[in-house]
Amino acid sequence: MVPMADTIRVYLLDDHDVVRQGLRFLLEQQDDIEVVGESGTATEAAARIPALRPDVAVLDARLPDGSGIEVCRTVRAVDPSINALILTSYDDDEALFAAIMAGAAGYVLKEIRSSDLVAAVRHVAAGKSLIDPAMTATVLERIRNGPETPDELASLTDQERVLLGHIAEGLTNRQIAEQMFLAEKTVKNYVSSILSKLGLERRTQAAVLASKLLGDAPQR
Question: Is the pTM of this model over 0.70?
Fold first, then answer.
């Protein structure tokens, strides 16, 4: 198939070969869509997508080495013109929140009909959002009016405070990575940063401090 002048260039990220092949077959049946690359890991996708500059990156939310949401954040920090469509098996408010924060233009479940997925790719490629404006407004409100931050935690970023809350819950780095849609290595870096900013040496100290300061307050 010879690409049209206004062909939508798409990149696919999913750790299952069969899913990627199915998506490629579906999309390349369309006269106005061309799949320019694909990968099965977050690391490879984060490196290749900015170089290929697709119009749309269709990203699996959960991957063995990270998440499509983190890839979205990384790629759009390099090139904001790349539109991301998060494709997930999980209907999860926290995942949707993370996707919005990462700058994703769309968030759809894998059970979506083939014709609707094609329409979603075209919609996102045109610079439009598939995320309900009401949900975006809720996320922004959550950021603006979240629980007041104790003075001791003022030096932490929003992401670090959320992560600290998970440390207080006793979650491992792997569990936190899954909860926050981050790579485990990224979580380790955040933990090191948190300990440094709080003047602590051990993770257990951070957990005790967080439990004392945050109590049962909901975390952003």
Answer: no
